[in-house]
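Honest question from a wet-lab person: if I give you the sequences of every part of a complex, can you actually get the arrangement of the whole thing, not just the pieces? Trying it with mine:
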Amino acid sequence: MGYSGFRVIKEGLFGQRGWKPVWRDPEPKAEYDAIIIGGGGHGLATAYYLAKEHGLTNIAVLEKGYIGGGNVGRNTTIVRANYFLPGNSEFYSHSLKLWEGMEQDLNYNVMHSQRGLINLFHSDGQRDAFVRRGNAMINQGDDAILLDTDGVRKHLPYLDFDNVRFPIYGGLYHPRGGTARHDAVAWGYARGADQRGVDIIQNCEVTGIDIEGGVVKGVQTTRGAIKAKKVGIVVAGRSGQVAAMAGMRLPIESHVLQAFVTEGLKPIINHVVSFGMGHFYISQSDKGGLVFGGDLDFYSSYAARGNLPMKEHVMDAAMTLMPAIGKARVLRSWGGIMDMTPDGSPIIDKTPTEGLFIDCGWCYGGFKAVPGSGFSFAHLMATGQHHEPAAKFRLDRFRDGHGLMDEEGTGAQHNLH
Amino acid sequence: MRLTCPNCGERDRREFYYYGDAIALRRPAPDAVPEAWDDYLHNRKNPAGDTTDLWFHEAGCGAWLVVDRNTVTHAVHGATLAEKAKR
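Yes, you can. This is the full assembly:
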């Protein structure tokens, strides 16, 4: 069943009674060709592209909770391709291209809004670094425009440009960056996968992974055993627990990242603004709430909620950047569980177990990667070959130190990202 | 979150720098196989529940602490001085 403007008007005239659930609620079968553990954005996108690009339709997505209930519904919805290092650069570039075709591809309104992203800088040295990053983005085929102070002022007149500690020297403008409606991305991929025959099984927690002679045979779940020739682990926030079922220890520590939203306000922020010196970024949702966040709390946590010191720090940064925000009232705050890798970059790879694949380690940047991660992980699971844009996301790069992608340049060590 | 430093008593979390899993106290022998170093430096049990990790009392006595706490509830069970911890 497709969506169209005509359909919206028709349903409006007849009391909205014609809408139906957009994916089935099937019982798990005894066996599938492939199982995806984790029905978040990445898992659903993987299932969708397995079906669409590789014709694999006898597959199931196993979700322990409900679709849209994990990190895909807890992030701050930023979509961008402004990475610097080889590996990340081509991957996020590919992912952004998939974003740009997503709504037509899925026939689903994910409210993708390329409102532009501006990274601010506050010193000559930082300007040089952003010139270099902008050139890397342009070389990758993406867009980057260097703005001086007046250039930023035209876009963001409400900032405090003459702050004593962080005067605004300019910004790197990435016009194709923006936001999307996070839940709708999960729902759109779930619907698209379901339409192609994928079984999306909610309230089904994987409790064990069956391995015989080094080959994966299936999984144990709270709804019984399910056999499969291939199993993909895509469980951001619980990667360590699920990998342990296959006898693996991952180069991942789970941390909490907090986010905040204010009451709905009239339009003020038309872009995504990133204030790196304050570890702060902000955008305005279509409902009017100012959505903003900061850095990790910096201790390992699965609590999905943070502590007060980081809240205070984020509010400080907000007031430093745009004092007008002091008039707004914070409606709520929450935390998400981040898979932090030592170098701050993700992992899409095979595991030592044949037929078992893993997609994890998205740190604090998983949302924008949803389509690219799903596409590349589906490619790896279907063909056994790494998809070129994600070929550098190897699991073993930490062991041999080759191909580390430390985007922040702080060192490939756990407590530094 | 507040941590109880054996030297200074209960203190605000902001006085402490977080290092990570206490596996850092179990450094492999210099001639250990590369896998042992990989496990030491990178691979983590990363438990959802009770964990033991290292904190530095940066804005206090300057001691390294081994802290037992829970990653799901943020409850802190106790802390000992790293210099007295069994290696």
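Two things worth pointing out. The CA atoms of residues 64 and 203 of chain A lie 5 Å apart. Chain A has a mean pLDDT of 96.
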